[in-house]
TrEMBL record, chain A:
It comes from the Bacteria. InterPro entries: Brnchd-chn_aa_trnsp_AzlD. It comes from Halomonas icarae. This is AzlD domain-containing protein. Pfam families: AzlD. The chain crosses the membrane at residues 12-37, 44-64, 70-99. Keywords: Membrane, Transmembrane, Transmembrane helix.
Automatic annotation (TrEMBL), chain B:
This is Branched-chain amino acid ABC transporter permease. Keywords: Cell membrane, Membrane, Transmembrane, Transmembrane helix, Transport. Belongs to the AzlC family. It is found in: Cell membrane. It comes from Halomonas icarae. It is a multi-pass membrane protein. It holds the Pfam family AzlC. The chain crosses the membrane at residues 20-39, 51-71, 136-156, 168-187, 194-211, 217-232. GO terms for cellular component: plasma membrane. GO terms for biological process: L-valine transmembrane transport.
C-alpha cells in the first residue's frame, strides 16, 4: 500500500513512523514484564539493527557517483582512526564537495 | 547490597535536572545532526511543517534519515514501517536492559521514561547503574535534553536550508549516508559482525537490482538478523 506524500498522507506516514518507534521504545519493557527476552531474540535484534543500516548504505555506495563513494570511504576511515562521528561525517561531506568541485568530470 | 540496589531506581526532580545537565554537552552534537536532518529533509522535498512534526513525534535520527530515502510522491507505507522498526529495534533492547530498575516504578513513570529513550541517555544511564549510581534521572532528564536539541536543530536546519541552491555540489546529499555509516562503523566490530554486514549488504544489493523498489532495506535487515541468529548460536551452545 502506497500513500501520497501530500497533506493528510504525510501526516499519516509520520504518525505511523511515530507509532512504530514508540512500540520499539515501549515494547522491550512491556515484553519483559511478562517473559524475559531470550538470548536468541536478543541476537537477532542486535544483528538486525546494524544490518538495516548496511542494507541502506550498500546501494548508495554501489550506485552513487565517485564523490559519494569517496565520501563514504573518508567517513569510514576517520571513524576507524579517530572513533568520533562528527569529524567522520564532516570529513566525508567535505571530500564529496571538494571532489565534485575540482573534478566534476570524474564524479559521474 | 540489597538496600543499595533498592535505591538505584530513585527518580526525583533533582536527579532529572542533573540528568538534563549531564547530557547538555552531547546535545550540541545532537543539534548539529538536527541541522543536517533539517537540510536533508528539505532537499528530499518535505515541507517545513512535516519535517518539524517528524522530529517532534518520531525523535529517532537514523530512522528519520532513512525515511527520507523512501520519501517519494508515493510512499510505501508497509516498507516505511518495517524500515523504521528495524532501525529502531535497538530500543527494544534498551527497554529490556533497563527493566530491572524500571520494574519497581508505577507503569505511568515506567513508560513515561521510555518515551525519550535514545542511544546517548541509555548509554549514560547504563553506565551509572553499573557504577552503583541511580540512572533513571539521566534517562529521563537526559532524554528530554536530547529531544529539545533535536527539535531545535531540525528547526535551525530548515532556516539555513533555503539559502543553499545546489546541495550536492557542497556534498550535502551525503550527510545521511555518512551519518549512517559512522553509526555502523562506530558500533561493535569483530569478524562475526563483519560477516553479518556482508550478508546484509549482499542481500540488499540483490534485492536492489532484482526485487521490487525499496525492498532492499527490509531484505538486507532480515538477512543480517538471521545471519546473526544462526551464527550467534554456535559459540553460546558449545
Amino acid at each position: 500500500m502506497s500513500i501520497e506524500a501530500t497533506g493528510l498522507g504525510t501526516v499519516i506516514i509520520i504518525l505511523a513512523m511515530a507509532l512504530v518507534t514508540l512500540a520499539t521504545r515501549w515494547g522491550g519493557v512491556f515484553v519483559m514484564s511478562f517473559v524475559p527476552i531470550g538470548y536468541r531474540v536478543r541476537r537477532f535484534i542486535h544483528a538486525m539493527s546494524g544490518s538495516v543500516l548496511v542494507a541502506l548504505l550498500a546501494p548508495l555506495a554501489v550506485s552513487g557517483d565517485n564523490g559519494a563513494r569517496l565520501a563514504l570511504l573518508t567517513t569510514a576511515v576517520i571513524m576507524l582512526t579517530l572513533k568520533k562521528p562528527l569529524p567522520a561525517i564532516a570529513g566525508g561531506i567535505l571530500v564529496a564537495a571538494l571532489f565534485r568541485q575540482l573534478w566534476p568530470a570524474l564524479s559521474a | 547490597m540489597a538496600r543499595k540496589e533498592a535505591t538505584l531506581h530513585r527518580l526525583d526532580r533533582a536527579l532529572v535536572w542533573d540528568g538534563f545537565k549531564a547530557l547538555l554537552p552531547i546535545s550540541l552534537f545532537v543539534t548539529i545532526f538536527g541541522i543536517a536532518f533539517g537540510l536533508a529533509a528539505t532537499q528530499a522535498g518535505l515541507g517545513d511543517g512535516t519535517i518539524m512534526l517528524m522530529s517532534t513525534l518520531v525523535f529517532a535520527g537514523a530512522s528519520q534519515f532513512a525515511a527520507l530515502e523512501l520519501w517519494e510522491p508515493q510512499i510505501p507505507l508497509f516498507t516505511m514501517m518495517v524500515t523504521v522498526f528495524a532501525i529502531n529495534a535497538r530500543h527494544l533492547l534498551m527497554g529490556a536492559t533497563l527493566y530491572p530498575w524500571l520494574e519497581p516504578l508505577p507503569p505511568a513513570k515506567r513508560y513515561g521514561i521510555m518515551l525519550v529513550a535514545s542511544d546517548a541517555n541509555w548509554a549514560m544511564a547504563t553506565q551509572a547503574f553499573t557504577r552503583g549510581r541511580p540512572g533513571l534521572g539521566l534517562m529521563l532528564g537526559g532524554g528530554i535534553a536530547l529531544w529539545c536539541f533535536w527539535v531545535l536543530g531540525t528547526w535551525l536546519g530548515l532556516n539555513v536550508g533555503g539559502a543553499i541552491s545546489d546541495p550536492a555540489s557542497l556534498g550535502l546529499d551525503m550527510v545521511m549516508g555518512c551519518f549512517l555509516l559512522a553509526m555502523v562503523v562506530g558500533g561493535e566490530k569483530n569478524l562475526r559482525m563483519l560477516l553479518i554486514w556482508a550478508v546484509a549488504a549482499g542481500a540488499s544489493l540483490l534485492a536492489f537490482y532484482y526485487l521490487p523498489d525499496n525492498s532492499h532495506v527490509v531484505v538486507g535487515a532480515i538477512a543480517g538478523g538471521l545471519a546473526g541468529l544462526t551464527w550467534g548460536k554456535r559459540d553460546h551452545e558449545h
